[in-house]
Amino acid sequence: MEQNIRYEKPVISIIKRLRKFRKDPKEAALPEKLFEKCNGCGSLISKNKIVENFFTCPECNYHFNITSKDRMDMLLDGYRIINRPFKFTNPIDFPTYKAKYRENKKKSGLKEGILTVEGYLNDIKLIVVSLDNRFFMGSMGSYIGEEITKAFEHAGERDLPILIFSTSGGARMQEGIFSLMQMAKTSIAVDRYGETKNLYISCMTHPTTGGVTASFASLGDIILAEPGALIGFAGARVIKETIKGELPENFQRAEFLKEKGFLDEIVHRKDMREYIYKLLKLHGYRGCKK
Ligand SMILES: [Zn+2]
Questions:
Q1: With b meaning 16 or more CB within 10 Å and e meaning fewer, what string describes 37-48?
Q2: Which residues pair with 201 in a beta bridge?
Q3: Which pLDDT score is estimated for 5?
Q4: Where in the chain is the domain with CATH 3.90.226.10?
Q5: Angle between the 176-194 and 142-157 helix axes, to the nearest 10 degrees?
Q6: What pLDDT sits at residue 6?
Q7: Cα(277) to centroid of ligand 1, in Å?
Q8: Which listed residue, 67, 99, 203, 212, has the most CB atoms within 10 A of its CB?
Q9: Distance from the CA of 56 to the center of ligand 1, in angstroms?
Q10: 65-282 classified as CATH 3.90.226.10
Q11: What pLDDT does 8 receive?
């Protein structure tokens, strides 16, 4: 049956997007649409340059936030989305949740902050999940927890490797205890997937914090991060007040965490495709039929 699934090629490749962007007179007429100030070094960089550099700054390597769709387009040769339909629920009747949900949906054009796909990286088939911090800061509510769990189950049943790009503000406070429960649920999903002897690669991107760091994102067989990503559980200010002392420079940044053995490697976005492919091959994945 698997052979009958048709995989769509990514609709907007980066190159196509670039061409469209250059052609669109509305976009080109506005200087603020042509240039973007880099949060890393403060330089004014042409958007074309940023896109050509995989949404990173050519001057200082700052990694701009990207959408989960852009991530899939840059990484994979073809994919199909396997998320289940989403229906809004308000499990603890949080007063402003529905209004906030509508606002986030309108602003981001998303229904929820997660994208799960089954796709190909060269000849290797894999499951890729990406959180999207345009929606509720990528915070983990019941739907995201369930989708992460389903992704592990789907990968395990099919003997596929799984790769998760995290970016999150933590648990979704509007869902109270239900969001906190997702930490246990996703951790169990990782553990069960581990029994299938398949590979789970976790990649933390800027920022990955709170309940997501404290659950599935830190449980990868291999843990990667993008350069400069902020990764932590509690915020630096809270920690500083608790320990009543100074924090080291670079605290909670990917480079600091790698030095302390929390991460296996920091991978630049432009090298991500090649790096992931190499890891998959090293673990014996190869040559699936398209
Ligand atoms: Zn820069």
A1: ebebeeeebebe
A2: 163, 222
A3: 43
A4: 65-282
A5: 10
A6: 45
A7: 28
A8: 212
A9: 8
A10: yes
A11: 43
